Amino acid sequence: MRTGVALGSNLGDRLANLLAARKAIIDLAGVEPPILSSAIYETEPVDCEPGAEKFLNAVLEFDYEGDPVNLLKNLMEIERVLGRPPGYARNVSRKIDIDLLYLGQMKIDTAEVQLPHPRMHSRRFVLQPLADIRPDLVLPRQAKTVRELLARLDDSGKVVRLTKDWQSR
């Protein structure tokens, strides 16, 4: 099942953090090619503490056959290994942030997992990179494509495309 994951980092060596997260995700059991990687974007922090540094953001898509809860736990373990402390607060600066965006057309709303990600359709820092790789995707619980959702967002947050081919580094 095609699975989307968002990566973000605004502390330390942001590019190295994204590269390490990408490698760890690709190495997970159940993750299969083709692996699609968006360009990397530099974005303004959204709802973070005052003075927070800009984020680097990207989206990966891959085939995954397995339990969504297990995948989410593995993604959280990658965050922990890469320097994000357990029990972290939302919307704070971080070395790495990995969000499970969607798993095919699955719809889940439990305490552990929410699919699709409940706020992704309103976040430019997710939709802009996702539009690189899946502009015509219609997300679960949405009627519009990623491209159409992106076009409806307000342009107030600055988003700068930094590099297209980062995955080979």
| CATH architectural name | 2-Layer Sandwich
Count of runs of 4 or more consecutive helical residues: 4
Q: Helical amount among residues, as a percent range?
A: 25-40%
CATH fold-type name: Alpha-Beta Plaits
What are the secondary-structure elements, in order, as H or E?
EHEEEHEEEHHE
Question: Rounded to an integer, what's the Rg over CA atoms?
Answer: 15 Å
Total of domains: 1
CATH superfamily: 7,8-Dihydro-6-hydroxymethylpterin-pyrophosphokinase HPPK
What's the story with the biggest beta sheet?
Answer: 6 strands, antiparallel
Low-confidence stretches: none
Tell the overall outline.
globular
Fraction of residues in β-strands? 25-35%
How many beta strands in the DSSP annotation?
8
Instruction: Give the class from helix and strand content and strand pairing.
Output: alpha+beta
Separation, N- and C-terminal Cα atoms: 27 Å
What is the residue-mean pLDDT, rounded to a whole number?
Answer: 92
CATH class annotation: Alpha Beta
Outline the secondary-structure elements.
Blueprint: E1 2-9, H1 14-26, E2 31-37, E3 40-43, E4 55-64, H2 68-81, E5 97-103, E6 108-109, E7 114-115, H3 124-133, H4 146-152, E8 159-163
Helix pairs in contact: 3-4
Short summary of the structure?
With 169 residues, the chain is an alpha+beta fold. The protein has 4 helices and 8 strands.
